[in-house]
Amino acid sequence: MVTIPTVTLNDGIAFPQLGFGTYTLTGAEGTDAIVEAIGNGYRLLDSAVNYENEREVGEAVRRSGIRDELLVTTKVPGRDHGYDETRRSARGSLERLGLERIDLYLIHWPNPRVDRYVETFQAMIDLQKEGLVRTVGVSNFTAAMLTRVIEETGVTPAVNQIEMHPYFPQDELRAVHSSLGIRTESWSPLARRSELLGEQVIGDIAAAHAVTPTQAVLRWHTQLGSTPIPKSATPARQIENADVFGFDLTGDELAAISGLERGRLWDGDPDTHEEM
Ligand SMILES: NC(=O)C1=CN([C@@H]2O[C@H](COP(=O)(O)OP(=O)(O)OC[C@H]3O[C@@H](n4cnc5c(N)ncnc54)[C@H](OP(=O)(O)O)[C@@H]3O)[C@@H](O)[C@H]2O)C=CC1
Ligand SMILES: O=C(O)C(=O)[C@@H](O)[C@H](O)C(=O)CO
């Protein structure tokens, strides 16, 4: 089993440098895949109300027998934005997870047209004070949205989970995160596989280190200071994806991978995307 190193978040919590995505892992097979992932060393689990798998994640956590070592993430969906709505949403998530606490609670999408993400974040801060949430963060927030929640609540999110992969390295937003003390978390870190893993430049760099293309990509994320959360239903791939801390890419190699930049791959511009 791989030991995944941690970094310290702005609220003092030890946070894994790599976690496990669970989107599409549902039902008994989904639970089994998450149990396998925990057995393979993953300690950070990423879920959301909208993945409709909080029960599966909670069941996997109980089956693992190491609840206290795990950081369980879930996310407030757009339809639950608002102060009271978020408190109600958190109660629903806790009930479905069957856990006493959400370890990392994120706003899934800012939905700026609705304009209720500040009160949503305030509710999360209050849930944290009450011990129902350990760490508060956001997802898909722009620099302007981060500044606004910080100014209006006085609390800096510990994490911003954003689309990031070699086709979309997010240099500017990562620099903002660094200056504010926010940890970047990369969603779809393998670009949902797409053609990324067949890119010549990634193949060449992987060969130079005797690792797989996937491992080279995930090491690129961690060396850029982001926590990738690759999803895999396949135990052998879970092991491969977690085993990325035994080699270092050079500065030139990091830059060559970032050179694949082409922009967002999906319709996920936080200024316009609405997700309920
Ligand atoms: N906050 C947000 O808005 C969003 C958050 N997310 C989160 O990010 C997580 C990860 O993103 P996701 O979209 O799932 O995409 P990923 O980039 O993690 O890619 C997952 C795909 O890659 C395949 N794969 C995984 N490992 C390997 C490997 N070693 N070799 C070859 N193929 C591999 C998987 O196949 P297989 O399972 O068959 O092994 C699956 O098809 C999600 O599960 C979710 O938790 C995702 C999107 C948006
Ligand atoms: O997976 C998530 O967290 C999402 O936010 C979804 O929008 C995802 O990006 C998707 O593709 C849904 O079809």
What does this structure look like?
This protein is of the alpha/beta class. It is built from 10 helices and 10 strands. The strands form 2 sheets. An 8-stranded parallel β-sheet has the order 3-4-5-6-7-8-9-10. Strands 1-2 form a two-stranded antiparallel ribbon. The model has no long low-confidence stretch (mean pLDDT 98). The ligand O=C(O)C(=O)[C@@H](O)[C@H](O)C(=O)CO is lined by residues 23, 48, 275. InterPro entries: AKR, Aldo/ket_reductase_CS, NAD(P)_OxRdtase_dom_sf, NADP_OxRdtase_dom. Belongs to the aldo/keto reductase family. Residues 18-260 form the NADP-dependent oxidoreductase domain. This is Aldo/keto reductase.
> Which class do the helix and strand fractions yield?
alpha/beta
CATH architecture: Alpha-Beta Barrel
Q: If you consult CATH, what is the topology?
A: TIM Barrel
Number of beta strands: 10
**CATH H-level superfamily:** NADP-dependent oxidoreductase domain
Q: List the domain count as a whole number.
A: 1
